[in-house]
Design a protein that fits this description.
By secondary structure, the protein is an alpha/beta fold. Helix content is about 40%, strand content about 15%. This is Glutamate 5-kinase.
């Protein structure tokens, strides 16, 4: 099975921006175990800016573009060092791929990306994909890694897209504010009622919220790919998902005729 897994900043780091070591170690162990079972794994990893904020000792996430890009440059080093070190302990090799929207929109550059990624998978590598925050501007930015994950999954014909978030899935209302909010375990159509559930704001460190996840779901479903939102606080949930057991919210892909 070819699985694209998007990991949000809230899964990787504390609100301080510092690495959540215990969780990241568990995540890497589970990913490597799924790889050992014969799955192809592609990681779409947030966290570069957040980790850069922590590493640089900044008091908060920067709002100006040059500082954001500087934090991303510092944080990306720590992020890849962490993945390389932890997955290397399980005899797996990682590779870094940084993209902008131009790489996706331009036919030749997109073909080069696909060729590189497919060759990495053939070589048994775990690709780690992120938006190239150090050069991205308003004109070439993809916008969020939920969207990036869905675009990559559709582009490479993934069997499954998993978005690890700081929430169990899509609720009828914000469960942190409404005690009567109900988790939706399966979505087969993005109706107005479903889309209205996506009013959640992004986390303090990340930029994506439920709205971006619903946008990603639309892209995945249109490509015939199932997408699951699950809580990244428990990386072992990936075992249940890979085994086909219900967990979080599953958006059922529209199968091609």
């Amino acid at each position: 099975m070819r699985i694209v897994i998007k990991i949000g900043t809230s899964t990787l780091a504390y609100p301080t921006g510092r690495l959540n070591i215990r969780r990241v170690e568990e995540l890497c162990r589970v990913v490597c175990d799924l790889k050992n079972a014969g799955n192809e794994i592609i990681l779409i990893s947030s966290g570069a800016i957040g980790m850069g904020v922590g590493k640089l000792g900044l008091k908060s996430r920067p709002s100006d573009m040059p500082t954001k890009q500087a934090a991303a440059a510092v944080g990306q080093c720590e992020l890849m060092y962490t993945y390389d070190k932890l997955m290397g302990e399980y005899n797996h090799t990682v590779a870094q791929i940084l993209l902008t929207s131009e790489d996706i929109r331009d036919g030749k550059r997109c073909e080069n990306f696909r060729n590189t990624l497919f060759r990495l998978l053939e070589l048994g590598v775990i690709p780690v994909v992120n938006e190239n925050d150090t050069v991205a501007t308003d004109e070439i930015v993809i916008g969020d890694n939920d969207t990036l994950a869905a675009v990559v999954a559709a582009d490479i014909g993934a069997d499954l897209l998993v978005l690890l978030s700081d929430i169990d899935g899509l609720y009828t209302a914000d469960p942190r504010l409404n005690p009567y909010a109900r988790l939706l375990t399966e979505v087969t159509e993005l109706t107005k009622e479903i889309l209205a559930c996506g009013g959640e704001k992004g986390s303090a460190l990340g930029t994506g919220g439920m709205r971006t996840k619903l946008h990603a779901a639309e892209t995945a479903m249109n490509a015939g790919i199932d997408m699951i939102i699950a809580n990244g606080a428990r990386p072992s949930v990936l075992y249940n998902i890979a085994d086909g057991r219900a967990f979080g919210t599953r958006f059922v892909g529209r199968k091609k005729q």
